[in-house]
Design goal:
By secondary structure, the chain is mainly beta. Among the domains are: 105 residues, no CATH class; 94 residues, Jelly Rolls, CATH 2.60.120. Helix content is 11%, strand content 41%. The protein contains five helices and 58 strands. β1, α2 and β2 form a beta-alpha-beta unit. The longest helix has 27 residues. The N and C termini lie far apart (123 Å).
């Protein structure tokens, strides 16, 4: 008896709650059941007046009565307001004229349910989600042509679009910013084989477009710059525009897509995974940006006749494998502000700027690459940037093969550096480079100086004229000379460039090599220089110091206790602080010499 009482009380509470929910719902709006489209229009007219009078909202329930579907045909254009909402039973749908509904959020229907049949539907506000299924049934996913349905959904001015199936298309247009949901695909199709890279290279931008349009049956046109959020999958499609940008802030997954006159920009938080990619960017833009986002692209061909090929900055990361980047009007690859590009085995050819350049931190890895025929230098690292070009071919670039400055670093171990218009390697302003095992010959810089370090530059190198790869070079093809330090602390040699802590302002405290007097003159190559007589004679006079000597401040000491070097006062360009000659007759004696103006001042240190 007690249990029965509990059950009865529970039922009363449940019924009261249901009645209360129903009463509240009715008080918040009027529920109407139109039987035809004409009746729906009449109800709409009254709903507008009713809302103006007392604020009553209206909810239309469109029901299915019989047959395959129940169309509510709207014979004229109508705009439903924010206080009007719709609920569609399965197989009930709007049909006919032009309909504007306030928002997709004002619609209640199944996620794959068709609710529009031929009606041109737009939304006044962008809130809520639409799907191509609202306009048609995807009978056989990936086979049924859903082009019209996709375009209706894209044009409906809703910013959220559900792609939960495979939707085959031919020509669709993106008209604004979208947030894509779902795990489905926009599926295109192709005819025949993709154009070969050699064929694409042999023609101009318009010719490349013709080739791509003949290959792709499916085209996506951008009518404006697009900001894509959420997750979108596209296969086998050509994306084209007139100097527009396809910005990715969500996830883009694609196989076999091409872009014409369109820049792909992976923004902060964006992520792109593309297999087989061709960009024919003839607009005044970079073909491929990673602006804080990440992109992984395989089998890429990039042409940017209006700008750079690939660019990463603000921490963006681009991994691009088996890539060809050519005929860009500016740099092939460019990194700025901590970005990173990995493009091993790439071909970076014939670009209007540098092949690969980095500035203000970040890194570029182009190991095993071919960097050829670029109008600037092959590889440029500035302002603490790092470039790895190990075993790469850096050839026939108009300026230097490798240029580093302001603390940049390039590792070109094992690289082939030939045929460049200026230096094989130009290293300046506290930058460093590694060219151990590199091949360098006199085809760079018209046969003149090949490797140069200036203003604190440090180069890790084999010995010219001796080690493999540098056999065609002589010692004077390096400046400063190999294993020597100049007055600004620049160095080329086998020591680790990071260990030059004892070379300050050209002062090398390590033991220097021995210099011999030649006709009263000596060439100084070290800041701690040993000196010996000409032909090992017992005594020899030192009249002058060769003005091509590297240091301006150095120690000079005797190389032998059995031979004497006499530093002459006033005979040549040497003047002693004592006004008398200085005799270095044993290895415990030295002189400190400083170059001032046109003379060398010598002071005995004993």
């Amino acid at each position: 008896m007690k249990l029965l009482k509990i059950i009865i009380i529970g039922l009363i509470v449940f019924m009261s709650a249901s009645l209360s929910w129903g009463k509240t719902f009715e008080q918040s709006g009027l529920i109407l059941y139109p039987s035809t489209g004409t009746e729906l229009l009449a109800m709409h007219t009254k709903a507008v007046a009713r809302y103006a009078a007392d604020g009553t909202t209206t909810h239309y329930k469109l029901i299915h009565t019989s047959g395959a579907s129940t169309p509510y045909e709207v014979s004229s254009a109508v705009t439903f307001e924010d206080y009007e909402s719709f609920e569609f039973e399965p197989r009930a749908m709007l049909s006919g004229g032009t309909v504007a509904i306030y928002s997709p959020a004002n619609i209640k229907a199944g996620s794959t349910q068709q609710i529009f049949d031929g009606a041109t539907v737009t939304f006044t506000e962008s809130g809520g989600c639409v799907s191509p299924n609202m306009w048609g049934t995807n009978t056989t996913p990936g086979t049924t042509d859903m082009t019209d349905e996709i375009n209706y959904a894209l044009a409906a001015s809703a910013n959220i679009m559900l792609i939960d199936d495979e939707y085959l298309f031919t020509d669709i247009t993106l008209v604004g910013d979208y947030n894509f949901l779902g795990t489905g695909f926009l599926v295109g199709s192709t005819t025949g084989s993709a154009p070969l890279a050699s064929v694409l290279k042999a023609t101009d931008s318009s010719g490349r477009l013709v080739l791509m349009e003949a290959y792709y049956n499916s085209v996506i046109t951008l009518s404006s710059d697009i900001d894509m959020q959420g997750k979108l999958r596209i296969n086998d499609a050509l994306i084209k525009s007139s100097n527009k940008s396809f910005d990715v802030e969500g996830v883009l997954i694609s196989d076999n897509i091409s872009m014409h006159s369109t820049s792909l920009n992976i923004r902060l938080g964006g992520d792109a995974h593309i297999t087989t990619y061709f960009s024919n960017c003839d607009s005044n833009n970079t073909a491929l940006y990673c602006q804080g986002g990440m992109a992984e692209i395989e089998n890429a061909i990039v042409v940017a006749s209006g700008g750079r090929g690939g660019m990463c900055y603000n921490g963006g990361v681009l991994r691009i494998s088996e890539a060809e980047i050519y005929d860009c009007s500016s740099d092939g690859l460019y990194v700025l502000y901590g970005g990173s590009i990995i493009a091993d085995n790439a071909i970076v050819d014939g670009n209007g700027g540098n092949g690969a350049v980095i500035n203000y931190g970040g890194s570029i890895q182009i190991n095993g690459a071919t960097i050829n025929g670029n109008t600037g230098s092959g590889v440029v690292s500035e302002s603490n940037g790092t470039i790895y070009a190990i075993n790469s071919e850096i050839t026939s670039n108009t300026l230097s093969g490798i240029f580093t400055t302001f603390g940049g670093f390039v590792n070109a171990n094992g690289a082939i550096i030939t045929g460049n218009g200026s230096y094989a390697l130009d290293c300046r302003l506290n930058s460093s480079a590694n060219i151990i095992n590199a091949v360098i010959d006199l085809t760079n810089n018209s046969g003149d100086l090949q490797v140069r370090a200036l203003q604190g530059g440090n180069i890790y190198s084999d010995e010219p004229g001796v080690d493999s790869g540098l056999t065609s070079l002589a010692s004077d093809d390096f400046k400063p000379l190999w294993n020597q330090t100049d007055t600004a602390g620049s160095f080329i040699g086998e020591a680790d460039p990071q260990e030059f802590t004892n070379r300050l302002g050209g002062l090398d405290l390590d033991e220097g090599s021995t210099a011999r007097i030649d006709a009263g003159i000596v060439l100084i190559t070290s800041s701690n220089q040993k000196i010996d007589t000409e032909s090992s004679t017992a005594t020899d006079d030192l009249d002058s110091i060769d003005t091509d000597s590297v240091p301006v401040f150095f120690f000079l000491k005797a190389a032998s206790t059995t031979r004497t070097t006499v530093i002459k006062h006033g005979t040549g360009n040497i003047y002693t602080t004592t006004g008398s000659d200085i005799s270095l007759d044993n290895t415990e004696k030295a002189a400190l010499i400083y170059y001032v103006g046109t003379r060398y001042l010598a002071m005995p240190m004993f």
